[in-house]
Amino acid sequence: MAKIGIFGGSFDPPHLGHVLALEEFQRKLSLDRVIVIPAGEPPHKQLASGGASSEHRLQMTRLAVSHLPYAEVSDLELRREGKSYTALTVEALRQRYPQDQLFLLMGTDMFLSFSSWYEPHRITAQATLVAAYRMKDQNGRLETCAQRLRNELGAECVLLENAFLPYSSTGTRAMLTFGCGADYISAEVYDYISRNRLYYVGVNLIGLDFDTLRSISLSLHDRKRVPHVIGCSDTAGSLAQLYGANYEDARRAGILHDITKALNAQEQLKLCDHYGIILDHFYRENPKLLHAKTGAEVARRVFGEDEAVCRAICWHTTGKADMSILEKILYLADYVEPNRSFDTVEPLRRLTFTDLDAAMVLGLQMTMEQLRGQERLIDPNSIAALRFYQERNRDHEIIRQQ
Ligand code: DGI
Ligand code: FE
Ligand code: FE
Asked: Residue 394's pLDDT is what?
């Protein structure tokens, strides 16, 4: 009886994280074979727009694991019409391997939501569930879940430490588009990507019209951030019309402002290195702030945006003293766009549409208060901005009273 692993994913693209995770899966369970299955249409999420076609994903996956003698790529799910239910996949493999033991690998989130999958009992009837986790199962959530699945479904479950899960393909796609993704994938896969110009590698993205810029940039975001980015762009456009700034610039700045937000801290630092962005200690310690700096550089170098747009992106998170109208518009549009729903958003939203400088003071104060509550350090630029706009508002007050 052979031990066969099942390793599914979108593989859009397959990167080194996938390969390392697969190797660890094979090693820790002493698997004789691992079937790698690119997903057709995953039931739980749509494939990202801007992603590669099924055929490309299949070819790339073959290249990515070609050096592993025990790995075999199957187009089982790609050939199937409709949704790629795991239950159907596992049953198809059971027919092919009636005598063997099947192990289905999944990440923590998938394991915790396993009961809500399509007909989970059909899966557990055929395969052992392998929940891979990155860090020790501190609160016992995985073990509790495993126990429940054992009781309810008679499932066989194994918890497996795997340092390489979860991995983000969104970040890898974005790094490829920004011209520094080669380190995240094998040389063969990178070569395939460049030859086929996937993920905009080698494609000139300078001077795109707004609609094209919008659709490309949205494909580089995590799905849940997309409404925020659209809301920010629309709000920035409205504010530009209200305050006499350039409408087109405002909408472009809005659509691009969080363009590097899908990247993790390590990827942010790599991008800084690639673009020669010099980081002081504060920025190194607060990688959340880096997306504004790297976003501005991507806007400049990848999309060839105007300086005014790049500067607005650069200051959208912290603000600074003496900002241009466009810079203030982006800072505030990011804060009050319609998807923002925190308690105190309404007064700030009203003020943003009546008095930009007064809104800057309120916005900066709100951010600082929140950061202090979380014992995080405040960027010196934000402190300078607050002082600047408090003084300016005081001057306005004096002029109004005279
Ligand atoms: O990118 P968004 O989430 O849309 O919004 P943003 O660009 O305003 O980023 C918000 C994040 O940045 C949030 O995690 C708080 C953080 N941040 C903003 N100002 C400062 C800050 N973090 C520190 N440590 N210091 C700041 O001054
Ligand atoms: Fe941001
Ligand atoms: Fe934002």
From this structure: 84
Ligand 1 pocket: which residues have CB below 6 Å?
258, 261, 286, 288-289, 316-318, 334, 367, 371, 376-379, 382
| CA–centroid distance, residue 333 to ligand 3 (Å) | 9
- Distance between Cα 367 and ligand 1 center (Å): 8
Q: Which residue has its alpha carbon closest to ligand 1 atom 14?
A: 288
Determine the distance separating the centroid of ligand 3 and the alpha carbon of 256, expressed in angstroms. 9
What residue ranges do the domains of the chain occupy? 3-165, 204-401
Closest ligand 1 atom, residue 258 Cα: 1
Pick one of 1.10.3210.10, 3.60.20.10, 1.10.600.10, 3.40.50.2000 as the CATH number of 204-401.
1.10.3210.10
Distance 9 CA to ligand 3 centre (A): 29
Residue of 222, 289, 335 with the most ligand 1 atoms within 8 Å of its CB, for mutation: 289
At 38, give phi and psi (nearest 5°): -65, 135
Under a CB-based contact definition with an 8 Å cutoff, are residues 19 and 186 in contact? yes
Give the pLDDT score at 135. Answer: 78
pLDDT at 224: 92
- If the chain, 402 residues long, is cut into consecutive pieces of 10 residues, what is the mean pLDDT of each piece? 95 92 94 95 58 94 97 94 88 96 92 94 97 78 94 94 75 93 93 96 96 94 94 98 98 98 92 92 88 97 98 98 98 98 94 97 97 93 97 79 68
Residue at 337: amino acid letter: E
User: Given this model, what pLDDT does residue 242 score?
Assistant: 98
Question: Cis bond leading into 166, ω under 30°?
Answer: yes
Sign of CA dihedral 390, 395, 400, 402: positive
387 within 8 A of 321, measured Cβ to Cβ: yes
394 Cα–ligand 3 center, Å: 29
SS3 161: strand
Q: At the topology level of CATH, where does 3-165 sit?
A: Rossmann fold (3.40.50)
Q: Which SS3 state, helix, strand or coil, does residue 323 take?
A: coil
Q: Which of 259, 328, 367, 383 to mutate to test the pocket of ligand 1 (most atoms within 8 A of CB)?
A: 367
pTM: 0.88
Report the pLDDT value the prediction gives residue 47, as an integer from 0 to 100.
47
* Residue 49 pLDDT: 66
